[in-house]
Amino acid sequence: MLLVLSEAHKADLGGLPPLGTAGKLNIGAEAVQHGVEGLTYLLTESSKLMISEIDFQDSIHVLGFSDELNKLLFQLYLDNRKEIRRILSELAPKLPSYHSLEWRLDVQLASRSLRQQIEPTVTIKLHLNQNEDQSAQVLQTDPSTLLHLIGQLEQALGEMKTNHCRRIVRNMK
Predict the structure, then answer these.
(1) How far apart are the first and last CA of the chain?
(2) CA–CA separation, 86 vs 72, rounded Å?
(3) Which of left, alpha, beta for 50 (phi over 0: left; psi -120 to 50: alpha)?
(4) Phi/psi at 41 (nearest 5 deg)?
(5) With left for phi above 0 and alpha for psi between -120 and 50, is residue 22 left, alpha or beta?
């Protein structure tokens, strides 16, 4: 899979070749900042996608770097890929996960003021795990809203089975 660089990232990385590998830079702080941002983007996106050597070389070939600089960038990528992936996984938000669910259907058949009223209510207690802690959320709704929610969730599950969503999820890992 090739890494597609935007024009802004190409411009940021464009200042690298004339700098060389040693000596004074004689450039402004802004140019250095753009170069660092370009390298950061290149390395993080390549690490996220676990790009192979051929794909990495093809991705940076459009920048017009020398073979020596291309090899240097690829070696930098190989040396730091695992560390970058570890840091990215630590920075990823820790979302709560499902533990268990309890539900109850309550039906109010009558009250003092209304003798023949039927008012169903569904009460759901959702138990979640987050970072070794357990929490519970209590939700209460009527059956028609619950049916609408079920329909929306089934539609979202069906969308996750499309090739486009599978590709996105695979690239996020």
Answers:
(1) 14
(2) 22
(3) left
(4) -60, -45
(5) beta
Pair 76, 56: CB distance under 8 Å: no
Token digits of residue 138: 């209590």
pTM: predicted TM-score of the whole model, two decimal places: 0.56
- Residue 27 has φ and ψ, to the nearest 5°, of -130, 165
Residue 96 phi, psi dihedral angles, 5° rounding: -65, 150
Q: What is the dihedral of CA 59, 64, 67, 70, to 10 degrees?
A: -40
State pLDDT tens for residues 68-115. 888 888 899 999 999 999 998 888 888 899 999 999 999 988 877 877
Q: Which two tokens stand for residue 109?
A: 């058949």
Rounded to 5°, the CA angle 48-173-71 comes to 20
Are the C-beta atoms of 55 and 1 separated by less than 8 Å? yes
> Kindly report the CA angle at 12 between 172 and 53, in degrees rounded to 5?
50
